[in-house]
Write a structure and sequence with these properties.
Elements lengths: L9 H8 L4 E2 L11 E2 L5 E4 L2 E7 L8 E6 L5 E7 L2 E2 L2 E2 L14 H16 L7 E4 L17 E2 H7 L9 H9 L9 H10 L4 H8 L2 E2 L1 H11 L2 E4 L3 H6 L6 E2 L6 H8 L7 E4 L5 H10 L5 E5 L2 H7 L9 E2 L1 H4 L7 E3 L3 H6 L6 E2 L5 H4 L9 E4 L4 H12 L5 E4 L2 H8 L15
Length: 417
């Protein structure tokens, strides 16, 4: 189907291999040549065959591909975002692109697709989904990447035979939080087309002197992303830049925090990672990288330019702090599971809303789980003039390891996004 969470790469792959792009039934006009398959259509690949099973629900064009071996035995099912291990695809993405769709309608279509197309298949078929745990395309996905269909019939809540359609719809929609803002834009890129990755890398991996870097930043209103390690960022960074480290969920946080995929981006990176930064940005639709700071922060310092930094305390120091001054930037479900008693919850995911919980004139101590999100939160607010934010090194992991700060009673965390 037309993916929302990343740029599929189908155009590049087709151009490099000469392969045809095949979609299930769709009315969408695309910016590239494609084969629109019919439900039940067979494609032969050597001695094996793939049958198209149209399974609308996650999106209207969603399809699964049933694999038969040389003898004609059904052995595998490529389920895309229709069926995951332990979950099914969320039904609230296509409505952002097609006006007359609702998530309730899509959930109903998905119920029918699962019952009529997938559950009648043999139990020994191996299910190969498009995502595993960590994707925003579902809410209860397993860490496992494959399973037998029979086991999924027994263990996947969405395939429970006792669920009627209304119950299924209610269960599927329960706890769904809004998808990242870049998702609808990625869908359109995957429909209309996008620049090749080679072009994006060529124009994005441009070394800039400190003077040029600063000039371009001022003239283009580019967002400056610092992709280095947490420790390096804390020690010194270009004023106004945002920490989104390459060693964390880089692309996901870019997509969550920068709503416009056409936003111009400059970046600071460790030497040798520049192409990786541009590539990972492009994979989620951000193909407007303008270049990077040549020589990194050292060249910025040598040029005599101002640096900013983040004040940090460790957990022992936090023991002496009024806990009402602690800001926990983890997701609400994480906070509800366990938190420092008295701490304010201001999830990074919704920083434009949650920053209203912060008084610009007061000092706060910011923590997440490990120290990645807290640093991102602080960097964004620093760029907006909040100067009294102190990072708690190691976050909740360090707090629990130390064991001396009072925490709320533990509640098993939800699997909601």
């Amino acid at each position: 189907h037309f993916h929302a969470d990343f740029v599929s790469g189908h155009k590049d792959l087709a151009a490099k291999t000469g392969a045809k792009i095949v979609y299930g039934p769709t009315q969408m006009e695309t910016g590239f040549e494609k084969i629109v398959a019919e439900d039940g259509q067979i494609f032969k690949v050597g001695d094996i065959t793939l049958e198209v099973l149209h399974t609308p629900g996650h999106t209207m064009e969603s399809s699964c591909f049933l694999l038969r071996d040389e003898s004609g035995k059904e052995v595998g099912l490529f389920t895309g975002d229709t069926l995951f291990i332990g979950d099914v695809g969320r039904p609230d993405l296509a409505q952002k692109v097609i006006a007359d769709l609702t998530q309730e309608k899509l959930a109903g279509y998905l119920y029918d697709s699962l019952r009529n197309k997938i559950m009648p298949l043999a139990d020994d078929i191996i299910v190969y989904p498009a995502h595993g745990a960590g994707s925003a395309c579902g809410k209860k996905m397993s860490k496992e990447t494959t399973d037998t269909l029979g086991n999924q019939k027994r263990t996947n809540y969405a395939l429970a035979p006792s669920l009627n359609k209304d119950q299924f719809i209610a269960e599927l929609l329960k706890g769904l939080t809004p998808p990242p803002g870049y998702f609808p834009q990625n869908v359109l890129l995957n429909i209309k087309g996008y620049d090749s990755i080679d072009e994006v890398i060529e124009r994005g991996v441009k070394a800039m002197s400190p003077r040029v870097f600063e000039t371009v930043a001022n003239e283009t209103d580019a967002v400056i992303i610092d992709t280095r390690s947490k420790d390096d960022f804390r020690a010194g960074f270009v004023p106004g830049s945002i920490f989104i480290g390459l060693d964390g969920s880089f692309a996901s946080w870019v997509g969550t925090l920068i709503p416009d995929v056409q936003q111009k981006i400059l970046f600071v990176a460790d030497k040798g990672t520049e192409e990786e930064v541009v590539t990972r940005l492009a994979r989620v639709g951000y193909d407007q990288s303008l270049g990077y700071l040549d020589g990194g922060i050292e060249s910025w310092k040598k040029d005599g330019r101002e640096l900013d930094s983040v004040e940090t305390i460790d957990v022992k120091q936090l023991e002496q702090i009024d806990k009402e001054k602690v800001v926990d930037v983890r997701r609400e479900s994480e906070y509800n599971s366990e938190h420092v008693v008295g701490a304010i919850n201001a999830p990074l995911d919704y920083i434009n809303e949650t920053m209203t919980r912060i008084d610009k004139k007061k000092t706060y101590y910011v923590q997440c789980n490990s120290g990645y999100r807290s640093l991102t939160f602080i960097s964004i607010l620093k760029a907006r003039g909040y100067d009294n934010l102190i990072d708690v090194r190691g976050g909740m992991e360090a707090i629990k390891e130390e064991g001396k700060i009072k925490l709320s009673e533990y509640v098993c965390p939800t699997t909601e996004l």
